[in-house]
Amino acid sequence: MTLHEIRARLRPAFPLLALVAAGVGCSREPPAAPPAAPVEVKAITVEPSATELYADKVGEIKGSQVVEIRARVGGILLATHFQDGSLVKSGDRLFSIDAREFRAQVASAEARLASAQANLSRARQDVDRYGPLLAEDAIARQVYDNAVAAQRQAEAEVSASRAALDETKLGLDYAEVRTPLSGRIGAAQVFPGSLVTAGQTLLATISSDDPAWAYFTISESELLAFQQQAGTAELPADDPRRTVQLILSDGSIYPHPGRINFGDRALDPTMGTYTLRAAAPNPDHKLIPGMFVRVRATAGDRKNALVVPDRAVQEQLGKYFVTVVGEGDKAELRPVQLGPRFGNRQIVNAGIAPGDRVVVEGLQKARPGAPLKVVPVRLEDFDRPAAAPSAAN
Predict the structure, then answer these.
(1) Whether residue 192 is found in the same domain as residue 77
(2) Domains identified in the chain, total number
(3) Is beta strand 93-97 parallel, antiparallel or unpaired with respect to 183-185?
(4) Considering 153, 174, 195, which residue would you say is the last residue of a domain?
(5) 281, part of any domain
(6) Domain ends where: 260, 283, 300?
């Protein structure tokens, strides 16, 4: 059989083979997709607990007393007796002003006082001498009365001279400028050789930082909520809610608690905030004016509160949700109603129940219905140190 005859016999079979192959391909089902791998998340088990509420506010440290040092007398500044930024004690000498003029005035006043005292001595001698003579009618009454008047005038001159001497001595004392209080002094504003004008030239500024004052603000709504909770607009001086803690920029807690000792007379109309002040002991001068701290104030307590880390709460269109581990360890999105927030913790008033497992980490991948691989953690594991306070907070 020739090659041509073989091809002619096989040609009719090609379409049949193609149909068989197509039928086999159409009857085969596509392979099933593999099940989704569980998403690893961290979750806490919510349990009711007694929780102390607090609020953290950014505060600025200021000196309890700030005094501008100015000279009481004028003259040329001779010397400065302190180091800029150092701690000084009440009565320490700060500046020396040329006092030669005041020394001359003191010498002149002393001389006038001595002259007045000599006149007084002579007047007293006249009175003492005329007294017996008047008793014997040896002199006229007018002579004795004139002697008494001269004595009184001499006494007045002595008093005036003594006052003038004291006044000139004050000028001499004022030439040595001393600090009126203990605290930290700033940089000197004048230098030796400068002309100082009495009552005008600013020499330096000193602030007393023990106790230190921490100023902070709260919003109008926070003020109203606190007044409603406390039941009064004015706390007694010994109320424990006046006690605050100061948290430094490195996250450490200042060892000496402070107490709120001042509330402003009115709200700031531009910002809608209310200013408070807390006084804290500062024996080691660790709190420096201008420093920013976080003021932690107690806002009461809540019994049987359900608390989650604030990172577990999601906001969508003004509503709040948390992701919980549902049946079959699958993610479930639940709406919640929030209570007070304190630190990095959030109280949940409704939406979850004791025993629920709330997802804290891995929220981006934990879509509703997604299988979860749950790693249990504790609420305390998410307590971060206090954030560093700054003026922008």
Answers:
(1) yes
(2) 4
(3) unpaired
(4) 174
(5) yes
(6) 300
Q: Please give the chain's pLDDT, 393 residues, in tens.
A: 554 554 555 455 444 444 444 444 444 556 655 666 788 888 888 888 877 777 788 999 998 888 999 999 999 999 999 999 888 888 999 999 998 888 888 888 889 989 989 988 888 888 888 788 878 878 888 888 888 898 899 899 999 989 988 888 888 889 999 998 888 898 999 999 999 999 899 999 998 888 899 999 988 887 887 777 655 556 666 666 788 889 998 888 899 999 888 888 888 888 888 999 999 999 888 888 889 999 988 766 677 888 888 888 888 888 899 888 888 888 888 899 887 777 678 888 888 888 889 888 888 888 888 888 888 888 887 765 444 455 444
In a domain, 5, yes or no: no
Backbone angles phi, psi at 215, to 5 degrees: -95, 135
- Based on the fold, state whether residues 113 and 144 are members of the same structural domain: yes
Task: Report the chain's terminal Cα–Cα distance, integer Å.
Answer: 99
Joined tokens for residue 311? 């990172």
Please state, in angstroms and rounded to a whole number, the distance separating the CA atoms of residues 198 and 221.
50
Look up the domain containing 255 and give its range: 56-63+208-300
pTM above 0.70, yes or no: no
Give all strands (DSSP E) within the chain, no chain letters: 39-45, 49-70, 75-80, 87-88, 93-97, 176-178, 183-185, 195-196, 202-219, 243-247, 258-263, 273-280, 292-305, 307-309, 314-316, 319-325, 331-342, 345-350, 357-361, 372-377
Question: Is the residue at 33 inside a domain?
Answer: no
